UniProtKB/TrEMBL annotation:
Native organism taxonomy: Bacteria, Pseudomonadati, Pseudomonadota, Betaproteobacteria, Burkholderiales
Enzyme nomenclature, EC number: 3.1.4.58
Entry keyword set: Hydrolase
NCBIfam families with a match to the protein in the record: 2_5_ligase (TIGR02258)
GO molecular function terms listed in the Swiss-Prot or TrEMBL record: RNA 2',3'-cyclic 3'-phosphodiesterase activity
Motif (HXTX 1): 37-40
Name of the protein in its database record: RNA 2',3'-cyclic phosphodiesterase
UniProt cross-references to InterPro entries, sorted A to Z: Cyclic_Pdiesterase, Phosphoesterase_HXTX, RNA_CPDase
Amino acid sequence: MDRLFIAVESPRAVAAHLVGLVPAASGIRPTPVAQVHLTLRFLGECDAEQAGRITAALDTIRAEEFTLRVAGAGRFRGQQGSVLWAGLAPCLALDALYAAVTDALKSAGIAPERRHFRAHLTLARCRPTVPDALLRDWVAAHRELAVPPWQAHRFVLFESRLDQQGATHAVTGTWPLIAPDDAPTTASVPVSA
């Protein structure tokens, strides 16, 4: 079974800059630069038949390109610690892509996500032992965080592979986003493993 998720990639230079802002402290594990992305939907464990249905459903999506802008930073808190993130500014075309992915997955028999979609880039995972004051101060210092905007040209189906060093992500398929003046094109571009 494969652990799958659908995402929009971020440029390496943007990811490196953002990860470079993460505090260097015990218990804080920065996200590897190559893994900084905007998750549209985490699917979890999927067998080959489910993965085929998901790929076929994603083939039906026609969505426009859009510009992503970092707009501040924050953290999610949970029992296993905190997640530091860079927020993304509201974007109607991103919302439309998220809705299209949700609808396509529903047609493939996958229930919609229960949690509200909050567009963000995960920058670090923090153990519960990290002092709360350190994390609060980091969020306060980066409330106005911004980097140059970038254009999203595609969305991606990733397989997440877990090993002793953590997760590695492998692209299993890509789907181009359509320039506003372009006609729809073939959607899926499979990638060999």
